[in-house]
Amino acid sequence: MELREYMSVRRAYNLVRQETDSSRRLTFEEFAILCRLDTADEPLKTSAIAEYQGALRPTMTHRTNHLAKLGLIDRGEGQVDRRNIVCQISDDGREHVRKLSELTRAQIIAGQPLARTSAERVRKYVDAMGAVYCTAGELVLLALYMDSERECTVTNLVEKLGLLQPTVSMSVSSLAQSGLVTRNRGKSPTASSSFISLTPEGADAAQKIAARIAAIVVRRRSRA
């Protein structure tokens, strides 16, 4: 997968998530679980989903519990080993995947990667992308990495990522404290905005994340 495709889908879903009522709001990872279950079309062990997302069991239990409480998946004991918890997407979950995929597709504006893709294709992308977890701070690093030759402000990053300004500001502050980005005032003495850029360490960190994204394989429709 190309980095710009990954970022295009993440930005679109971030915008969709902002517009979703808080009681029904899903993280990107939870959306990806629904897409994985919908694509698999069969129950999956919680341990298999955790392996797919590279998540610890408590984290996966939290995610699947949330999806189950919303009625989007059904959780039960395995038929062979009752210690194994299996998850299956519900009818409401399938409909929710269709809705979120369409809304996400609609948020990919003309000129952005995958702007002409289908909702069905978005579902496959999200399913594949669920294997690489990125925090808000890591998304900031990737946005700066893609446009390393251009100066970015927090406002620019909010637009690029579809995240709320407080989330981006907190992420930039944390990255600055970790020595991954620097903040510099504009050339004008009266400039109020800080321009954010990657440090060599930040560029290295972003490159490693980008390499993981490049390894993502999106399933394509089988040929007749």
**Widest sheet: strand ordering:** 1-3-2
Question: Which stretches of 5+ consecutive residues score pLDDT under 50?
Answer: none
Order of helices and strands: HHEHHEEHHHHHEEH
Hey, roughly how much beta strand do the residues contain? 5-15%
How would a crystallographer describe the biggest sheet? 3 strands, antiparallel
- The name of the CATH architecture of the largest domain is Orthogonal Bundle
Secondary-structure-derived class: mainly alpha
Number of self-contained structural domains? 2
Keywords for this entry:
224 residues, mainly alpha, Arc Repressor Mutant, subunit A, 2 domains, three-stranded antiparallel β-sheet, two-stranded antiparallel sheet, 5 strands, 10% strand, globular
Folded structure, characterized:
The chain has 224 residues and is mostly helical. The protein has 2 domains: 3-129, Orthogonal Bundle (Arc Repressor Mutant, subunit A); 136-213, Orthogonal Bundle (Arc Repressor Mutant, subunit A), CATH 1.10.10.10. Helix content is 55%, strand content 10%. It has 10 helices and 5 strands, in the order ααβααββαααααββα. It has helices spanning 3-18, 28-40, 46-53, 57-69, 91-106, 119-129, 136-146, 154-161, 165-177, 200-214; strands at 44-45, 73-77, 85-89, 181-185, 194-198. The strands form 2 sheets. The protein has a 3-stranded antiparallel sheet. A two-stranded antiparallel sheet has the order 4-5. Strand 2 and strand 3 form a beta hairpin. Helix 1 (3-18) packs across helix 5 (91-106) and helix 8 (154-161) crosses helix 9 (165-177). The longest helix has 16 residues, at 3-18. The radius of gyration is 19 Å and the shape is globular. The two termini are 24 Å apart. The model has no long low-confidence stretch (mean pLDDT 91).
